[in-house]
Design brief:
This protein has 525 residues and is α+β, with helices and mostly antiparallel strands. The protein is built from 14 helices and 20 strands. Helix 4 packs antiparallel against helix 13.
Length: 525
């Protein structure tokens, strides 16, 4: 049954939020003044932020984020202390407080707020929101139905989040096993068995002949280094061969840089000969996992060229820097990319390029500020600031994607080098001294094939879970929408109508403000 004149459910009224509720300000209680072993929760805008031995208001109460997590809604059954970044709503005998809590959540109070530099909630804006109020008994029926449905929904969400967490653990376990040689242990056994059946004719190929080896091209297009490797009937490369290759490729890179410098008319500083970094000490090696035969540890700086991006001009937001044809990416684009950066939102002008550097397509970008150790390959030539490091692999030594996956595996270890400041950052030296376990190119390709195959399945499952969580949240909002439009619980014609609730609320407000004198029986006030 509904009120045909207003198209409202029977007994319901349409009312301004501010005519029902008062959002009261919390009170400051700095962290140093709180008593950690107190029994009363201290609420900030994001929820419980500590404990104290005194309370400001009696529970139950609703706490609403005013600054910071503006619009967030929390419910406390205990006596509590809401701090000054919150509003709170006291219990009222004419309104079921749990109903009020769900009502506030359905309104999405943060969206009602005008845009400001600092997220904040203005209660006067929220007071003007129009809501529908049912009879008090129906409020209880609505809450019972909401909590019944939410209970089942929460079980499903908990299961999905558990599965999501397990996928992350599995992903990290795969990476860990990959760089300990465990993923390719069986492959090495089979590879050695092939050698015993068809022994190599002449052992390892001399270093100066390796470029001519024909091998099939597999994997990502960015790999670009399949010209080096062993045939199935050749023995795997030894540790000594791997180390010699590093030295040779570093020397070749230096000669190329020197030739380029001379071709350019000796512009800029003359390239310096490569410095051989000190070998890992016995103590350092003892702290690292033992590697399979044929694997070796090297510093990341040994495996390619590392360099910070450039953005020398100040201020960095000078309009003259932007609006040209040269893509300019920052840490956000690296973090949001799915392995390859394919989009950019800013460009440098010729003036901007002069104070920066254009890095080539395929450069591995590694973030060292704000988002630590996020990685992605450039899908186009681009500039980036010094909060991003570019890595160009010695492709006869190591596959760039191998380094990419290793940094993903080592991210937590890399983050640990960042100082505990508001914005974490690391320096170039941290990456240069990153110890990387690696093997011959043939085994690197096997590792990448395994990781890419399994990660493809993980990514599909992860996307399925994300979609299911989004659907669960949409269903939650649908339940609330039905609840507060009278479609979730039945109406009872015997319920006291909400209009009478409103009348009592108005009287009690006037009394609390001292504008009405309530006379007791016998005529005394």
């Amino acid at each position: 049954m509904s009120n045909s004149a207003t198209n409202l459910p029977a007994g319901w009224i349409s009312i301004r939020l501010g005519d029902l509720y008062t959002f009261e300000y919390g009170k400051s209680l700095i962290k140093g003044a709180r008593i950690a072993d107190g029994i009363y929760p201290v609420y900030g805008s994001s929820g419980i932020v500590g404990m104290h031995d005194q309370y400001l208001i009696e529970g139950p109460a609703i706490i609403i984020g005013r600054k910071g997590a503006a619009g967030s809604v929390h419910y406390s059954t205990d006596n509590l202390w809401p701090i000054d970044t919150t509003y709170y709503v006291r219990d009222n005998r004419n309104l079921y407080l749990r109903f009020s809590c769900y009502l506030f959540r359905s309104l999405n109070l943060a969206k009602l707020e005008a845009s400001t530099a600092i997220p904040g909630l203005n209660r006067n804006h929220d007071y003007d929101e129009t809501v529908l109020l049912p009879p008090l008994k129906e409020q209880h029926r609505i809450v019972a139905k909401i909590e019944e449905l939410f209970s089942e929904l929460d079980k499903g969400v908990e299961y999905l989040k558990t599965a999501q967490a397990q996928l992350k653990v599995y992903r990290q376990a795969l990476l860990k096993h990959a760089f300990e040689g465990k993923l390719t242990a069986q492959w090495r056994v089979e590879r050695h068995a092939q050698q015993s059946v068809a022994p190599a004719k002449a052992g390892a190929q001399p270093l100066n002949d390796m470029d001519s080896r024909p091998t099939p091209s597999r994997g990502l297009a960015l790999r670009g280094n399949d010209e080096v490797g062993s045939r199935d009937d050749e023995p795997l490369e030894t540790t000594d061969t791997l180390l010699k290759r590093i030295q040779q490729e570093r020397a070749q890179r230096y000669q190329q840089q020197l030739a380029d410098w001379e071709t350019s008319g000796k512009q800029g500083s003359k390239p310096k000969p490569p410095k051989l970094p000190p070998p890992l000490t016995a103590g350092e090696l003892a702290e690292l996992p033992e590697l399979p035969e044929g694997w070796v540890y090297s510093y990341l700086a040994d495996l390619g060229d590392l360099g910070r991006g450039k953005s020398k001009h100040r201020p960095r937001n000078d309009p003259r820097l932007f609006g040209g044809i040269y893509p300019f990416i920052q840490t956000g684009e690296v973090k949001s990319a799915n392995r390859i950066i394919r989009q950019y939102s800013q460009t440098y002008s010729d003036f901007g390029l002069q104070q920066s550097k254009l890095w080539p397509t395929g450069t591995l970008c590694i973030t060292i500020a704000a988002n630590i150790a996020e990685t992605a390959f450039l899908g186009f030539d681009s500039c980036f600031p010094d909060s991003v490091v570019g890595f160009s692999a010695f492709k006869k030594t190591i596959i760039p994607e191998y380094v990419d996956f290793f940094i993903q595996a080592a991210r937590m270890r890399i983050e640990a080098y960042a100082p505990a400041t508001a914005q974490k950052n690391i320096n170039l030296e941290t990456l240069e001294n990153l110890v990387v376990p690696y093997c011959c190119l043939e085994e690197q390709r096997q590792i990448l094939d395994i990781l890419e195959e399994r990660f493809s399945v993980i990514d599909q499952l992860s996307q399925t879970i994300t979609t299911a969580l989004q659907q669960a949240e949409a269903l939650r909002q649908s339940i609330l929408k039905k609840a507060f439009s009278g479609q979730l619980a039945p109406q009872d014609p015997n319920d006291e109508p909400a209009s009478e609730l409103l009348a009592r609320i108005k009287v009690e407000r006037l009394v609390s403000q001292g504008n009405v004198v309530v006379r007791r029986k016998g005529g005394r006030s």
